[in-house]
Amino acid sequence: MNQEFELIAKTFQGLEEVLAQELTELGAGNIEIGRRMVSFTGDKAMMYRANFCLRTAIRILKPIKHFTAKTADEVYEAVKSIAWEDYLDNISSFAVDAVVFSNEFRHSKFVAYKVKDAIVDYFREKTGNRPSVRISNPDLAINIHVAEDRCTLSLDSSGESLHRRGYRQEQVEAPLNEVLAAGMILMTGWRGECDLIDPMCGSGTIPIEAALIARNIAPGVFRKEFGFEKWRDFDQDLFDSIYNDDSNEREFNHKIYGYDNNPKANEIAVHNVKAAGVSKDVILKIQPFQQFEQPKEKSIIVTNPPYGERISSDDLLGLYQMIGERLKHAFSGNDAWILSYRDECFDQIGLKPSVKVPLFNGSLECQFRKYQIFDGKYKTFRSENSDKEFKPKREGNETLPRKRAEKVEYKGDKKTSFRTERKENDKKNFSRENRPSRPSTDDGRPKQAPAPRYMHRRRANEENTENE
Questions:
Q1: pLDDT at 19 over 50
Q2: Do the Cβ atoms of 39 and 6 come closer than 8 Å?
Q3: Within 277-357, where are the H helices?
Q4: Alpha-carbon separation of residue 52 from 67, 170, 224, 245, 262 (angstroms)
Q5: Considering the entire predicted model, what is its pTM?
Q6: Which of 89, 96, 222, 325 is most buried, with most CB under 10 Å away?
């Protein structure tokens, strides 16, 4: 029997309920929602799937010790008491990340140093040698979370943050985080039942994430590696079976449209859409919102206009006034979801939202608002739809209902897989053995990602063969 253990999925504030719903659908056990995290239980396969499949998680932690400590020395002793040879050896590298909310420990770096010292001293006393500390691409990433005197020491199974999907080739200024974009789409309940439009799509994050959701493509399929692949107990065959399983992917019979008035942003979005292999589903066009016209098919808008913080407009309030005017006159009969920061911007839209969801975009406390666009007056619309809920609030801890896509009947003997389509449409070989390389997405300056250090001889040999 596979042993189950505790796991923690970290996320952004406001996405906890969506993440819990994802974990429920994935089959995780003992799901409990916390602040910016959801705890659950599962075996090694569940840990691999959580990293590979979850759209709204930024990392998956595996706790290995819970303890209380009021001093730095108590932290040191608790960490040193762990049998570290089960996770690490004296020729490997590790890194420590500390998150501290405590009056006892006011500096997270100091806590990280004490954990590092405990591990180094453990190996030095046992073997006479010590592992090295490496901040970038370590063999083992360790996380310590301190809340007052309660401490949790965990192994970081993700490595690089899970929002770095791997498809983003370039980016515009202040791009929307991939995890936040996916969470916004999931909150709307959309799963590909109609067309989706982002009239201000920038580098294409919302259209790409929407295409992955519509086809039920795991976001981890683009990743070059995960942290757990360098663990001592890594099961290559188990992960290969998860990676190569495309049985849950589905057909998508509608379209996703991404518009932007910036030619450079459109060029970047085209590159990113192609890298994600969703060119068949996403249509990009240079078009200002002022020219937005009523779509012929049933549609939903999900968009993230400028806030006036990192990206501004010559007339920010005028921009939001124009958004409201276009929605009112060119989107009737449909729903629009808008993420923004300033109340004065929302006020300029001039429409009454039916839902307001607080969300954080970085450090900004934003709102994600739903607008039901209709002809005529709001009171008339409400009286004609008296069976529906229009109060702009979010009920307790209940998750927004998930709309399940209808079962698709495929013609022929076998459906065409995403990986096959991607190879045919975008001319890129996409497989477990040949993952795409990925530039950094931190600051907009493309960087060469550090080469992964594989512990397994088979993969190392493959890499050497490719380089010959």
A1: yes
A2: yes
A3: 316-330, 343-349
A4: 30, 23, 11, 11, 33
A5: 0.81
A6: 96
